[in-house]
Structure formats: C-alpha cells, structure tokens
Amino acid sequence: MNIDIKLNNVEKIAEQIRKDSIWMSTRAGTGHLGPALSIADIMAVLYGRIMKYNPKDPSWPDRDRFILSKGHGCLALYSVLAQCGYFDRALLGEFCSKLDTMLPGHPERKLPGVEANTGSLGHGIAIGIGMAMAGRLANKDYRVFVITGDGELQEGSNWEAAMAAAHHKLDNLVVIVDRNKLQLGDFTENISQLEPLAKKWDSFGWAVKVIDGHNIKEITDVLSSIPLTRGKPSAIIASTIKSKGLKFAENKVEWHYKVLTEQQYKEIKDELSLEELAYE
Amino acid sequence: MSKIQTKSTRVAFAEALSEVGRSNSKVVTIAADSQSRYGEFVREFPERSFNVGIAEQTMIGVASGFALSGYIPVVTSYANFLAFRAIEQIRVDVATESLNVKMVGTDTGFSSQWLGFTHLALEDMGAISSLPNIAIIDPADAVETFEATKAIFDYDGPVYMRIRGRKAEPILPIKDRKFEIGKAQILKPGKDVLIIACGSSVYDSLQAAEILKDKNIDAMVVNMATIRPIDEKALSDLIPSFTKVITVECHNIRGGLGSTIAEFISERGINTQLLRMGVKERFGMAGSDEMLKQAFSLDGQGIAQRAEKFLNEKCGR
Ligand SMILES: Cc1ncc(C[n+]2csc(CCOP(=O)(O)OP(=O)(O)O)c2C)c(N)n1
Q1: What residues contact residue A191 under an 8 Å CB cut-off, 6+ apart?
Q2: Other CB atoms within 10 A of residue B254 CB
Q3: B119 vs chain A: nearest CA distance in angstroms?
Q4: I want to staple B16 with a disulfide (CB 3.0 to 4.6 A). Which of A120, A277, B146, B174 is the partner?
Q5: What does DSSP say about strands B72-78 and B27-31: parallel, antiparallel, or unpaired?
Q6: For residue A177, what are the contacts with CB-CB under 8 A and spacing of at least 6?
C-alpha cells in the first residue's frame, strides 16, 4: 500500500518535484530540467494517489510498476522516490556529481524504486508489456504505468509494442504520453508529425483519453478509471508544457537540456521558495 | 610545453562538413531529431538536410536509399543509438553492399559523462567491427577530426567515424600532423615500449610518455586513428622491435583497437607481449570524463603507472 501519509497532498508533491529538480540540476550544472518539469504533476498523482507500492519493500511482488520510458526526465522520478521514502533525501545531492552515483542522468535499477534502466528511447512500453503479461500469468492484479515522451513515439519500437499490447488485451497496462509538443531539437510537428495522435492509438486498439497533464483533478479522474475500457490497454495523452513552472523556460526548445546558472537560481529562489544550493 | 589549445571534435566535424558540402553537391545529411551536429550545413544547404525524427533505424534505411540513388549521405547520432539501435539496418542495408554511407557516432568513450551507461559508448566499435566492409576511424583531436571528415568523403565506401562531445578538448601538441585513412603516425619516437592509441587516448598516451621519460622509460607513441583497415605495414615495421606493446583506447578492450592489434600479433606469430588498456568486462558509469578516465586508469598518470608495472613484469612462457 501507499503507506506514506505525507503524500496525500498531491499539489505539494508536485511542487516539491519541481523544487528538487531545479535544485539538483543547478547544483550538478547538468540535467534535463524541462523534461522533468512537464511530468511533475502526473508523477505526483501516480505516486500520491494511484499506485500501490511499499518503499520499505521495493520488490514487493504485488506493487504497481512504473517505468519512465523517457528516462531523461529522471529528476522528477528521483524527487518523488525520495519523497516516498525509498531512500534518504540527502542522496538527491549526489545527482550527477559523484562518480558512479545512484542518481545518474538516466535512471538505473540500482536505485531503489527504479523498475527499468531507461535513457535509450523507445524501450519502456515493451518492458511494460512483459511485466503486465507476467502479472497476469502469476494471477496478480498489479498494473503497469509507463510514461513516454511525445518525440519518443517517433521510435518504431513503440508502435510494434502498441500493436502487441492491444493484441494481448493488456488492460493492466497504461501508457501516459507526455505531450509537451517539444522534442530535443524542435517542436514534434516540425520534425516528424505525430498528429492525429489520439487516432493513432485508437487505431492500434487502445482505449484513449486526452487530458490536461497539469490539472490534478483531470489526471486523478482518468487514472482512477483504469482500465478505460475492459480488455484494452489504456493510452492517456497528457497535454503538458515543457519546463512547466519555470516561467522563462516554459515551452522553449533550448530548455531540453539546459540548467539554471547559480545567478538565475538566486533570482528565483525566494519566489519559488527553493533550498540553499549549499555544496557540502 | 606551450599552452595547450582546445577544440571540440563535434565542432570540427561540423566545420569540415560545411566545406565538403560546398564542393560536393551529392552530400546530404540525415538527422534523427537534433540537426545541431551538422552545424552550418543545415542552414547553408537546407534542401540537402533531412530529419526523420527520433528513429535511428529509419535514418540508416533512408541513408541507404540515398546511397543507392547516387548520393553520399551522412548520418549522426549518439554512437550507441547508431551502432546498436540501428545495427541490423547497418548490416543488411549498408555493409553487405558497401554503400557509400558516412556514419558518425558522437559522444563516444567517456564524453557523454553524466548521462550514464546508456549513453557512454564503449562498445560501439565492437558492434561495427563485427560487420565486414566498414572502415572505422577514431580521430585523436579536433584537428584530426577536421581532416578525417574531409577524407571520408573522398573514400568510396561505408565509414564509421567515432567522435566526441561538445566539450573543447586538448589539441595534440604535435607540429607535423598527417591524416590518411589507414595510415598510422608515429608521434613520439622511443625504444623501450610501443604505445598504440586511438581517439582521445592519444593525448593521454603522450602525457604518459612524458611521465615515463622522467623514469627513464623511452616510450614510442603511435596514433592509430584508423582501426580498420589497420595499417599492417606500420605494425609489421614497428612491433617486432619491441618486447612489450600497449594499446590504449576509450572503449572496451574487445572489438576495438586492442583486439585488432592482438589479432595481428598472434596471427603473425610476433614474439611480443601485449597489454590492452581500455574498459574490461563492464559497462560505463556516470562521471565527468576526467573522473572516468582516472577510474579506468586511462588518464596520463594511470597509463604511465600501468605501463611501468607491465615493463617490470616477466613475460610468461
Ligand atoms: C534511442 C535514442 N535516441 C536519441 C536519444 C537522444 N534524446 C534524448 S531526449 C530526446 C528527445 C526526446 O523528446 P521527447 O520524447 O518529446 O521528450 P521531452 O524531453 O520533450 O519530454 C532525444 C532525441 C535517446 N536518448 N535515445
């Protein structure tokens, strides 16, 4: 069960994800900040309200599984796992700043709570299918949640997996697309058009819902009604804003892999009530 | 030594590519998302610049189609997503037919730093070298990257060139630089041990040679920028004069420079002992490139220390 009662305030979790992400990446001088900020609200709802898990027993067989297929958004994952109590918060200070850190620029399973090594795009859905099939085989009722980027969907592997998941009627599998409309170099529609995206998932045999990925109520409602359709995997297209919460960076392509300078951090520190950067 | 100049190999590649693009209208670039690796080429020749989205396999397929239509396509990506994600397309579409596709893997060795093992490219040459027909080049610095970029377009056939990141790196403090595909270059003469290096390890090997000099060890340093076709003439001229040979590469010791030299020595029956420095039986990990080179004893100090120990070892028989 989601045992940590501190987590009931989902807005607070989301806010903390944003603060931690900014803090970690500024300290390290590296990291994919924009991609983490766009999924903060979704992550907060998943870990705060939807998923069952036990931070004291990360490999509890009945837990819901979470895979961050867009592994570069890991700042958000690290923060939420720390908030859940998977590890001591102090570890966040190691993000990309200690040799062989448990918190590298893409998530690895050596960190408690991380279910799959990601960072190479287009792997998460297939791994999720395996976990969903394994759950069914073992008569378990856990569910598998996968977050993908939207640009990530240009990788063909996702669509091979999408076909297979629908064929196998995996209604314990949920894919949430972080539809922030940007990828590394430009807007998705300028590079390789994704639209009509909902129709694509629908035609691949998935139950589809388009939501506002920053509206806690909408996210909660849709994730509380899984499976959206019995016998079908669920695809949730979450409309989001890359770098959401960092006004000057929102919706800007260059903030894919850019971090604040110490000066910029100082300037927004009070407004966002951020922690001291303090390097020990 | 005078002040070391620095430059990024990615910048050098982009600069040379623009030059090539101006003189050869058959050159086209195909990107998988970011086009920044192609620099000015994209702005100068938008009609010859294509982007297929985050789809490396498709990128190689499209390049093959262009090559089969008389063009000279160049593709780039993080080396792992090129050499591993698209390996089957490289094998079936490019390598079997020796198509004239120029493949440039970036952020190789330790240069993707904190991005971790998914991005650290330490096995890319192993993947590519398992396939016939593809030339493999690992330039030592930005100067050589510039020359090599021009050279690969004068070479008819598939090439895999591995370069590094955006970070400015030291340029070798060597006056007479020559680059020719398939040719080794002696950068420092020496008689006690032969160090053969490629990529960024060339600079570190030169540093190691300096350190060894203080210990009265006179190391020869050879830049083996082309791993395939390997410079057999240089190897047969040089190796028999040494009882100890060392290879150094920011790559797994399998499938790259070390393996190639090991095969050469044993197949020729040359009586010499080889130490392969590189990464052994493990994946990469997150760290700055300095930290990582140090951790794997591939910085100047580490190379020198291991070389000294190796020279003191008795050759077993
Ligand atoms: C297989 C693969 N190719 C390329 C990359 C490099 N890369 C990292 S993030 C990224 C863009 C991802 O865009 P999107 O999925 O839209 O995620 P966003 O950051 O916009 O949330 C790319 C191309 C990668 N990590 N893996």
Answers
A1: A151, A154, A183, A185, B33, B51, B53
A2: 17
A3: 8
A4: B146
A5: parallel
A6: A147, A148, A149, A150, A153, A197, A235, A236, A237, A238
CA-CA-CA-CA dihedral for A171, A141, A39, A87, to nearest 10: -160
CA distances from A148 to A120, A124, A257 (A): 11, 7, 17
Whole domain around residue B306: which residue ranges? 185-310
Q: Taking CA atoms, what residue in B is nearest to A72?
A: B115
Claim to verify: residue B144 and residue B248 sit in the same structural domain: no
Residue type, A264: Q
Residues A90-113: tens digit of each pLDDT: 999 999 999 999 999 999 999 999
Is A280 part of any domain? no
- In-domain check, residue A188: yes
Residue B179 lies in a domain: no
A104 found inside a domain: yes
Q: Which residue of A has its CA nearest to B36?
A: A185
- Measure A184 CA to nearest chain B CA, in Å: 6
Per-residue pLDDT tens over the stretch B6-44: 999 999 999 999 999 999 999 999 999 999 999 999 999
Q: Which of B170, B198, B214 is at the close of a domain? A: B170
What is the bridge-based pairing of β-strands B135-137 and B226-228? antiparallel
Q: How many domains, in total, are found in chain A?
A: 1
Q: Do B130 and B223 sit in the same domain of this protein?
A: no
CA–CA distances in Å: residue A225 to residues A1, A146, A174: 18, 16, 11
| Cα distance between residue B178 and residue B185, in whole Å | 7
Helices within B111-159 (DSSP H only): 124-129, 142-154
Q: Write the CATH number for A90.
A: 3.40.50.970
B309 and A127 in contact (C-beta within 8 Å)? no
Structurally, chain B folds into a number of domains equal to 2
Whether residue B132 lies inside any domain: the answer is: yes
CATH number of the domain at B114, please: 3.40.50.970
Shared-domain flag, residues B45 and B107: yes
pLDDT for the residue numbered A5: 41
Q: Is residue A146 part of a domain?
A: yes
Q: How far away, in angstroms, is A178 Cα from ligand 1 center?
A: 12
**What pTM was estimated for this model as a whole?**
0.97
Same structural domain for residues B66 and B147? Answer: yes
> Which residues contact residue B227 at a Cβ distance below 8 angstroms, ignoring those fewer than 6 apart?
B125, B129, B136, B137, B138, B198, B256, B257, B260
Collect all residues of chain B within an 8 Å Cβ-Cβ radius of residue A120.
80-81, 85, 118
Contact A106, A92 (CB under 8 A): no
Pocket of ligand 1 (CB under 6 A): A 35, 38, 70, 72, 119-122, 149-152, 178, 180, 182-184, 242, 256; B 33, 54, 81, 85
Answer yes or no: do B194 and B163 share one domain.
Answer: no
Percent of the residues in chain A that have a pLDDT greater than 90, as a whole number: 96
Tokens of A59: 């490999």
